[in-house]
Known about the structure:
The complex is a heterodimer of chains A (241) and B (119). Helix content of chain A is 82%, strand content 0%. Chain A has 241 residues and is mostly helical.
Amino acid sequence: MTAPINEIWVYLSASPLLGLTITLLAYQGAFWLYQRSGCNPLANPVLIAVTVLVVFLTLTATSYETYFAGAQFVHFLLGPATVALAIPLYTQFHRVRAMWLPVAVGLVVGSLTATISAVLVGRLFGASLSTQLSLAPKSVTTPIAMGIAERIGGIPSLTAVLVIITGILGAVGARYVFDAMKLRDPAIRGFAIGVASHGIGTARAFQVNEQSGAFAALAMGLNGALTAILVPLIAGWLTGP
Amino acid sequence: MLSALTQLLIFQLAGEIIARGLNLPVPGPVLGMLFLFVALVIRGGPGKDLQTTSQTLLQHLSLLFVPAGAGIMVHLHRVASEWLPLLLSLLVSTLATLVVTALAMKLCQRAPATSGEQP
């Protein structure tokens, strides 16, 4: 009594089990490759996992909606993980307090640079209005950025994708940028990564250095809050005539 | 692990309720992080359980972005038609943010130190 393969497929593709399993499989495979490469930033695990998943879903003609019904359990953990960032923040707080001035200045300057440059460069090269608005919150973590995009008239799901690409770019490029700048301080490196590329940058920073990771987490949280306040105020002015 | 996960969820829930209730622009999880931070200061540090669970969660933070990232397949059309402004915007903006943030911090950090060293 063996069911034909397409019957099994019909069952699997309708259940959340498949989406969840392939997400974990793709990520673990990608993470294995990343480690094998000696944690080379170019072998970014998010980039590899997303590519594998998109190819798989396209080949099996599975819709994103069906996939997300399973993958949402992983997506949901972004919330508690954001809350958990309080712990590295607490352990590194003595360093944060000693650096409050550079932290405050870096946050405001970095946050403004991220939003203004994203919208203006997009606008300069002919991005549509809804794309410009979706670009505005691209440097903050997914749930926050999607909320901002919704508020200002962008497309939340497009923003989520732009957020991920930004995160990957920051995680991949930061080391080369900072090395070229001859910048060694792990606190500053971490904070700048966190401002520019939120959780994906923070994940990368944690893998390299605990202190960088804590500063990246701090930057990601502060920038999320600041951007949520700033972007709705300046988005209309940036995209206006 | 169960108690730690529950604590994280409670702080997130508190953050969501207050953010929505008071109509704050700050997202719930960020507010939850702030509350947990204050709780840690009051309690004098996380317990062992909370420490290990958060470490596990944060170690695989990048996994949590994968489902949203795969959403690119829904926007392939737009990405294909606006690839140039999107690519340039993300590249220039990410690079500029990294450089500007780091430079601003370095300048602020250096300023008092050098003035102090002057004879």
